[in-house]
Amino acid sequence: MIDPDMTPNLLLVVVVVALVTTGVYLLLERSLTRVIIGLVLIGNGVNVLFLLSGGRAGGAPIVGTTPVEEMSDPLPQAMVLTAIVITLGMTAFLLAMAYRSWQLNRHDEVQDDLEDRRIARMAAADQPAFEDDTQDTRTDLEVEAAEARDETGDREDEQEVVRT
Amino acid sequence: MLILLTAHLLMALAAPTLVAWLGRRAYLLLALAPASAAGWALSHTSAVTAGDGPVEVVEWVPGLSLELAFRLDTLSWLMVLLVGGVGALVLVYSSAYFSPRAGGLGRFAGVLVAFAGAMLGLVASDDLLLLYVFWELTTVFSYLLIGHYADRKASRRAAMQAIVITTAGGLAMLVGLVLLGHGAGSYRLSDVIADPPGGTLATVAVLLLLAGAATKSALIPLHFWLPAAMAAPTPVSAYLHAAAMVKAGVYLVARFAPAYADLTAWRVVVLTLGCGTLLLGGYRALRQHDLKLVLAFGTVSQLGLLVLLVGYGTRAAALAGLALLGAHAMFKASLFLVVGVVDAATGTRDLRRLSGVGRALPITATAGALATASMIGLPPFAGYVAKEAALEALWHDDDGGWAGAVVLAAVVVGSALTAAYGLRLFWGAFARKKAPAADGFAAVSRPSLVLVAPAMTLALLGIAVAAVPGAGDELLSPFASTYPRGEAGHLTLWAGLTPTLGLTVAVLAGGLTLFLLRDRVERAQARVSRAPDADAVYRRTMRRLDDVAADVTAVTQRGSLPFYLSAILVVLVALTGWALVTGTELPATVRLADSPVQVVVATLVVVAAVLAARSRRRLKSVVLLGASGYGVAILFLVHGAPDLALTQVLVETITLVVFVLVLRRLPPYFSDRPLARSRWLRLAIAFAVGGTVGIMALVAPGARMHPPQSVPFPEEAVAFGGGKNIVNVVLVDIRAWDTMGEIAVLLVAATGVASLIFLQRRSGDIHRLDDVDQHAEARVWGGGPDVGAALRVPAPTPADGRHGREATGPVTVGMAARRSRAWLRAEETLAPQRRSVIFEVVTRLLFHTMVVVAVYLLFAGHNAPGGGFAAGLVVGIALIVRYLAGGRYELGEAAPVHPGLLLGTGLFLSAGVGLVALLAGGEVLQSTIVDIPVPVIGTLHLVTSLFFDMGVFLVVVGLVLDVLRSLGAEIDRRAELEGGDAGGSEHGVGGTVPRRSGTSDGAASARASGATSSSVRSTEEVAP
Questions:
Q1: Is B1015's pLDDT higher than 60?
Q2: N or C end of chain A: smaller count of CB under 10 Å?
């Protein structure tokens, strides 16, 4: 099964490039549906890449059906198999998100993060990021010290006083 | 040592419970922890003096050369005594200080004891990194203690300020420690001191260490956190901010002074900061009105003096420094405790309001007088002995040069200031004043003896140790003698008529003068416009930092998903591309294709993908995606991966259905986005990524350096896994852990889908036929025009059909007859215009067949293409068919279980098999092969990993069921509740499309029905 001939299959390379390119193009869209389609395309492309890196094509890796020397590499296949199923799970999850987005906003566009936009607006307007309520720092220390009191007292009956 | 630390830890953990049980009396019990530390140090006194203190080393993290190494030498011994002794007294004091109804006493007690433990570890540790760990622990506990009154803004700000400053210094110190440890080749503190590394590296390291010490010990210009930290309860001020934590910086300076005191950088920094802090603290203390602030600035001043003495570099100065270290801990902690007593008794700490307290509280006043006398350096107190030794050491340092003279002058002036604010403090707290502020205080309540005793103990200790200066000399000089320069100093009460005696007299006279002229001094200080206030500078800096952070955030966090993804992808292209260009070369030869089929299929895949990317219509795009995916499946098959091909086909089918289930709710077209420029940019990034991945695909096969992992798999699969299908054996046996992780991901995804749709529950009710309101009209997928209604045979009226259960007589027979004729159990619940007899018949025929096929795949998967994933997907498709043909009630009848149960059982089964193997004495997830002879059939060859595969199967079925119930059934139900068309025909994507796209039979039947065909046409041919 060790094949010294690790020549890549150009056709599969072309397939990988096409799937990844179209996938990335869609991934950068705003519409969540397109993003999901892009992800699935990228997923397919990378799965083929896995297979390609595993070596040349061969027979099914089933003992007894194919001679061991002619088998394709089973390890990447096992990895890709789980990847395929996980892509299904992810697609379903993202589609549920798209539906939820439609339910809330009546569209499935990925919006900019509101908080980030707020910060960007503030920075653009050169507003301070803090609320300055202690401009007068001169007397702070003394004023604050005068206000700071510990909860002291030795009388057990104080408790009663407070209660009444 | 470890036992002591553990005791502190346990006490700290138990403290809240103890306080809850015993109230504030628990503090007396907790005082045992620090007291035991002091006792431990005392018990080793003679060994320490002989230079033979206990050493303890336990390996902790060998990879980081981090050891639990402890060592008790003279310096550590002194510090442990202070930390333990003052700690115990402060805890005793706290038991009477706080009101029994004060809040947060349990937490306070726990943190205080934990701090005592951390401080103990800090001063006894003999490992640089361990030292740092304890150092930061004290910072954190100090933060918690300063912020004890978390509901007060001042407390929170003071705590934050303290932790920011000390942590910044601590990080600098960490770098210094690592540099030193690296340079010395050992992180053992004693080794580094014995053989200190030199050169520039050492200078940088030492400067960083001093930065840490300066922040911790509140040296200028970062001294301001200490006065602000007076927001902490008074016991904390006495312990952390007078006796213990702030001494950590002094400790660090003393620790490294024997090795580095002669370094020019060391001398410049230590002498400048020491003198500056000494003078500034004393000066500021003279105009404070709050007694705690007087003490706080006094502490700042004394810390400067301590750093100056232990860092000066001569043996005599070091001895004086150590003596002052002990004396300061005693008198300053005592004074803080006294101020606390006055505060508790009168309700104020403002020295303008207090008057005549000394007469009311004579014992407290006595303790205060003794401690003050020690602080200002009156004989025969410890403070006097130490200060006398300091003056002596500086006077006789002949190598000091002009710097020595400056230091001596600073110490004299600083001591005079100390005497002035010491007198001012005592006068302020206890004297009867001629004109006290009008808003004095209500009454003096008599404090309990427990409250006064700790202060008195410390004050009396101040005389006691001064009475035997020779003993102090003997105990402390072992450490002082490790300093490189100078004659050994001496501690003594009476050295005769020396020049230093004259200096002492001058100091006291100056102090007295300043005190008598206190009003003028205050006014003069108020007149002098204050130089830039360090505190204000700090706050401004922090705000600028906030501003810069906001600006950086605004630039980098644009909040746009495409922007983030582009950034990630560009990095991918840049890094991978660079590695590809520099580190690899393209293969000399390539194979064009394996077979003609491959060429045809590859063309299909590529064309479908490109068209999918170009399509503006959702459904078209999804169908093309499916086509491309099926093509990939054939590529898998041609490559020799039948399992992959099978899985890919099944997954593509399900993906298609799921897409359409959601798309029926979404607008048919993607929104128009005529932003040509951004599209070109996207295209450019897409091509860049595609190109990079393409080169990677060309290079990767040739990059192999080792034989594949999978070489021995064929034999192993049969011998250990008991199966012939290697891919399956890899999944369920060889790499079963991976598979387990992956089905866990599926479980999470399924749960995520369900929670996004059901929102408030894990999943909704199971829709069973029995729940259907028998009177209601069949309306699943109702709505929309029912053009074919006129052509249908009138449906049986509700009276003779669907009310079967309530009806009697011949009607029941009729119902039973209908039921037996029904192709699907829930077909009656569908709106009539949505039914398709052909689809129902096909479903009836297919469903059970598919389930049988799935069971076959599950069992055969170990030896032939198939397995749990494929079997689960097939069952999923069978369920999809049932749902599409009969609606959500049909789905409920076909799979009357909650998907959560399937998912949980599946994961449990997979994990459980692994554990069974463990119980049987094997490794986790190891397979066991059992051959059971079964009559007639022959031998049943059973491998335990089959159960693992069953778990996988159940999880996959659960995933598909979850998706169908959420994105299918639940969306249907909501649409019906809203009264709209479940098919969302307002948007043009017909609700029928998902049902029909599954099989060609469905499509045919759709065409047979006028209603449906119009709907189909509206989606596929007519552009709205």
A1: no
A2: C
Show residues of chain B in contact with A115, CB under 8 Å: 559
How, if at all, do strands B938-943 and B929-934 pair? antiparallel
Predicted pLDDT of residue B542? 84
Report the predicted TM-score, pTM, of the whole model to 2 decimal places.
Answer: 0.68
DSSP for B156-180, written as a single string: HHHHHHHHHHHHHHHHHHHHHHHHH
Residue ranges per domain, chain A?
Answer: 10-123
Closest to B753 (Cβ–Cβ): which among A84, A93, A119?
A93
pLDDT reported for residue B793: 66
Phi, psi of B786 (to 5 degrees): -110, 75
Summarize pLDDT for A92-110 with one digit per residue, the tens. Answer: 999 999 998 888 888 888 8
Q: What region, left, alpha or beta, does residue B925 occupy, with left being phi > 0 and alpha being psi -120 to 50 degrees?
A: left
What is the pLDDT at residue B988?
A: 38
A45 min Cα distance to partner chain B (Å): 9
- Nearest Cα of chain A lies from the Cα of B625 at a distance, in angstroms, of 7
User: What architecture (CATH level 2) is domain A10-123?
Assistant: Orthogonal Bundle (1.10)
Q: List, for residues B271-286, the tens digit of each pLDDT value.
A: 999 999 999 999 989 8
Contact assignment for B724 to A65 by CB distance below 8 Å: yes
Tell me the pLDDT tens digit for each residue of B326-372. Answer: 999 999 999 999 999 998 888 888 888 888 888 888 899 999 999 99
Quote the minimal CA–CA distance from A139 to chain B in Å: 11
Contacts of A23 (CB under 8 A, 6+ apart): A38, A39, A40, A41, A42, A43, A44, A45, B609
Say which range, B64-73, B741-750, B891-900, has the weakest mean pLDDT: B64-73
Q: Is the minimum CB–CB distance between B671 and chain A shorter than 8 Å?
A: yes
ipTM score here? Answer: 0.82
Residues found in chain B: 1024
Contact B612, A41 (CB under 8 A): yes
* H or E stretch covering B890: helix B868-894
| Tens-digit pLDDT profile for residues A38-77 | 999 999 999 999 988 887 778 888 888 888 888 888 888 9
Selecting from A29, A62, A73 the residue whose C-beta is nearest the C-beta of B864 gives A62
Residues of chain B numbered 464-523 and touching chain A (CB < 8 Å): none
Report how far residue B416's alpha carbon sits from residue B509's, in angstroms, rounded to the nearest whole number. 8
* Mean of pLDDT over chain B: 84
Shortest alpha-carbon distance between residue A71 and chain B (Å): 8
Domains and CATH numbers, chain B: 299-435+443-516 (no CATH), 560-700 (1.20.120), 719-1020 (no CATH)
CA of B629: which chain A residue's CA is closest?
Answer: A44
Cβ contact B341:B236 at 8 Å:
no
Q: Which residues of chain B lie closer than 8 angstroms to A10, CB-CB?
A: 590-593
The verdict on B584 touching A (C-beta cutoff 8 Å) is no
Which secondary structure element, helix H or strand E, spans residue B944, and what is its range? none
Residues 964-1003 of B with CB under 8 A from A: 966-967, 971
Task: Tell me the pLDDT tens digit for each residue of B632-659.
Answer: 999 999 988 999 999 999 999 999 999 9
| Cα B538 → chain centroid | 27
- Per-residue pLDDT, averaged over B832-855, amounts to 88
Rounded to 5°, angle at Cα B579 from B574 and B580: 100
Any A CB within 8 A of B560 CB:
yes
Task: State yes or no: cis peptide before B380, omega within 30 of 0.
Answer: yes
Q: What is the pLDDT of residues B859-904, one digit of tens each?
A: 888 888 888 999 999 999 999 999 999 888 889 888 899 999 999 9
- For A68, nearest residue in chain B (alpha carbons): B714
**Is residue B172 less than 8 Å (CB to CB) from chain A?**
no
Looking at residue A59, what DSSP letter applies? B
